[in-house]
Every structure is written in structure tokens, then in C-alpha cells.
Design brief:
The protein is built from twelve helices and twelve strands. By secondary structure, it is of the alpha/beta class. Bound molecules: pyridoxal-5'-phosphate (PLP).
Length: 378
């Protein structure tokens, strides 16, 4: 079976995990601090942008929304084509997700739909870098700036992607990353928030540790704080040392992960570009860190193609079922009339992509796809 995702766990990652376990300080500690520092450097963050590691991207989105003062009765705009974690994080604040449509050409936020769904209760907007491509932020930023609402970039797919030459991380007010089990860089579970310019670091560092304000330097050097205060709500969202150590070992290989994935994606596009019946993703992968290779299957054939591929040992996925198809969000504002989302929701299909595939595997998958259409016409 060719799996859809396959995390790269090598001897270095296992050694890093062993070292963290043998250290005996299992909570938040020195490896987390080092992971934050190295990640901030990798992302080329300006010094006025704090990066805070947390246990998941869902937590990162939740803390960003909270820090942006999203609360009960508020609304948050998000593409319906997004991870359910974002919708749940919005609801954790007591707010409601409002669904916005995507553009057909890149499956990312449609600024016209954003304008249409804007309303007096909207406090924030989440923009997603789908599959790892950079979303077109400038028209979106104009809207959020004019209305004074927070712009949160969900960059869970886009670690290492550049937008107009600039590493994604400091373009929106808030940027959130995921390092969960299947993401390009994994901590097994993990996430990070990049805060707006200014001094938000302390507030976020407290919020991830039950609201405890204490000197981070103490924990960062694997010691317990002598005393602390709790002035505000907080959560159990910190990253543990083990996960920080695993993330650090993965960071060493991240440039290779990114280059490999891009090359496999380019092979897919070369091999599949002429297959009638599918649409391949945007041709240019320059500066893109690809998390997923998503094609669109036309003519109502997606499920038949998925069954065909499963039969010949190729796993595929759907990222994602749009939010308005889940019971929980069927009737939120914006759930109806999502012209593009409702159509592409039946067409999108994710092909296997990992950091160390090989060209043979890419070719096997591609010929599995084209053989399906070959057999359909014959
Ligand atoms: C994976 C993912 C999340 C959730 O990340 P976790 O770390 O699993 O909480 C959120 N948004 C997007 C776009 C994702 O792909």
C-alpha cells in the first residue's frame, strides 16, 4: 500500500527523542526554547514578532483568536474549505464561524465573498495557505485593515513557503503553524503562533500554561518557578520537551523535505498535466513548501477513481469535506450558497506526498490515475 502521508522518522529523530526522555525534564523546557529560537530564525522573523510554541495548531488558533479579543457573540470569517480545528477553535471562544467561498483558480479565500459575508459582529478573519501555496493576502488585508479586524493566517500547510520572496510568518497579524503527525515538519503533535508586532509574547506564554505568569527563563532552563501569579484565563497548551526535541531534529532536514516534495509535485504535474478529466494544482511551485498534492476530479468520477486507486494499493484523501457538510456547521451564516466550495467539495482528491518518496512511487501513483481514465474511454 502506498500511504497518503508518511512522516520521516530517522535515527536522528529517535536519538533526539531518547535524549529528551533521558534528560528527565518532561514538561516545557530547554528543547522547547531551542525549538522556538531555531524556528524563528528559519522563518526569518523580525525581532518585534514573538514566536510561541504550543501543543497543536488548533490551540494556536484558539490563543490567537482570544488574544485578538474574539468572544461570545462574535463571528469569525473562515473559508469553509478549512480544517475542522479552526471551526472548533472559533467556537471555543464562544464565537461562530461564518463560511466564505474560495476562488476556483487556487481554492483560497475569495475577497468578494469576504466582502459579502462581512457584518457588524465579525471580529476576525482566518486566511488559509491551502496545500502550502501562499494565499493572496493583499486584497484580504485591505478589507481587514479597513474594518479594524484581526487577520489570522493559518499556515499549517505552509512552513517554509515564501510569498513574494518573504518567508510566511510575519505577513498577517497572527500566523499559526501545525507540527502534527502528518505535517511537513512533525513534533508528533505541536504548533506555533507568531504574534503581531509588539510585546504579546509574555501574554501568550502565560496563556499556554494555565495563565501562570512567571519567568519563562526558569522553565526554559528545566527548573520549576518558585512563585507565579494568574491574572487571566489560561489553558494547558504548552509544548513538552520531548516534542520540542523531535521538532528540532526535523528542522535540520526541513529544507530537504521542502525541496523533495516540490520535485515530486512537479513530477506529478508533468505526468498528469495532460490527463483529461482532472485539474492539477497551480503550475508554479517556486518558493512553495508543499504539504499536499491536491487534484480535482471532474465529471463526478472522484469516488470511482478513489476506489480504483485503493484497489491497486494507493491511498488517497479528501482535504477536506467542506465545513458546511458537517452536522455541527450545516446552518451557520454563510453555509448556503458557497458556489465554488460546494462544487469542488466533490472534486478535490489528495494524492500521496511525503518528504522521502521516490520517483518510481510518484510514477506508480500517476499511472494509476491515468489508467483509470484510459479504461473509462476504452
Ligand atoms: C492540521 C491543520 C490544523 C490543525 O492542526 P493541529 O496541529 O492538528 O491542531 C489546522 N489548520 C490546518 C489548515 C491544518 O491542516
Amino acid at each position: 500500500m502506498i500511504p497518503l502521508f508518511k512522516p520521516h522518522i530517522d535515527a536522528a529523530t529517535i536519538a533526539a527523542a531518547t535524549e529528551a526522555l533521558e534528560l528527565g525534564w518532561l514538561g516545557m523546557g530547554s528543547f522547547v526554547k531551542e525549538f522556538e529560537d531555531r524556528l524563528a530564525r528559519f522563518l526569518e522573523l523580525p525581532p518585534d514578532r514573538a514566536l510561541v510554541a504550543v501543543n497543536t495548531c488548533t490551540s494556536a488558533i484558539h490563543l490567537s483568536l482570544r488574544a485578538a479579543s474574539v468572544g461570545p457573540g462574535d463571528e469569525v470569517l473562515t473559508p469553509a474549505l478549512n480544517n475542522a480545528g479552526d471551526f472548533q477553535a472559533i467556537e471555543l471562544c464562544g464565537a461562530s464561524p461564518v463560511f466564505v467561498d474560495v476562488r476556483e483558480e487556487d481554492l483560497m479565500l475569495d475577497p468578494e465573498s469576504v466582502e459579502r459575508m462581512m457584518g457588524p459582529r465579525v471580529r476576525a478573519l482566518i486566511a488559509l495557505d491551502y496545500a502550502g501555496f501562499p494565499c493572496d493576502l493583499s486584497p484580504i488585508r485591505e478589507i481587514t485593515a479597513a474594518r479594524g479586524i484581526a487577520l489570522i493566517e493559518d499556515a499549517a500547510h505552509a512552513i517554509g513557503t515564501r510569498r513574494a520572496g518573504r518567508m510566511i510568518g510575519a505577513d498577517a497579524d497572527w500566523t499559526c503553524f501545525s507540527f502534527d503527525a502528518i505535517k511537513t515538519l512533525t513534533c508528533i503533535d505541536g504548533g506555533a503562533i507568531v504574534a503581531p508586532p509588539g510585546d504579546m509574547g509574555e501574554e501568550l506564554r502565560a496563556a499556554r500554561l494555565l495563565g501562570m505568569t512567571q519567568s519563562s527563563d526558569v522553565l526554559y532552563s528545566n527548573r520549576r518557578a518558585g512563585s507565579y501569579d494568574i491574572p487571566a484565563p489560561g489553558y494547558r497548551y504548552h509544548l513538552a520537551n520531548l516534542h520540542g526535541a523531535i521538532g528540532l531534529s526535523q528542522l535540520d532536514l526541513l529544507p530537504t523535505f521542502i525541496a523533495n516534495r516540490r520535485s515530486y509535485a512537479e513530477s506529478y504535474s508533468r505526468l498528469l498535466g495532460d490527463v483529461a478529466g482532472i485539474v492539477t494544482p497551480l503550475p508554479s511551485t517556486r518558493d512553495v513548501s508543499l504539504f499536499a498534492y491536491v487534484i480535482r476530479v471532474l465529471g463526478g468520477q472522484r469516488e470511482a477513481l478513489r476506489a480504483h486507486l485503493a484497489e491497486i494499493g494507493i491511498e488517497t484523501g479528501v482535504h477536506w469535506l467542506p465545513g458546511n457538510r458537517f452536522t455541527r456547521w450545516r446552518s451557520v451564516r454563510g453555509a448556503e450558497g458557497l458556489r465554488v466550495t460546494d462544487r469542488i467539495g466533490d472534486e478535490i482528491m489528495t494524492l500521496p506526498l511525503w518528504s522521502f518518496m521516490d520517483e518510481d512511487t510518484v510514477e506508480r501513483v500517476a499511472s494509476g490515475v491515468s489508467s483509470f481514465f484510459g479504461s473509462l474511454v476504452s
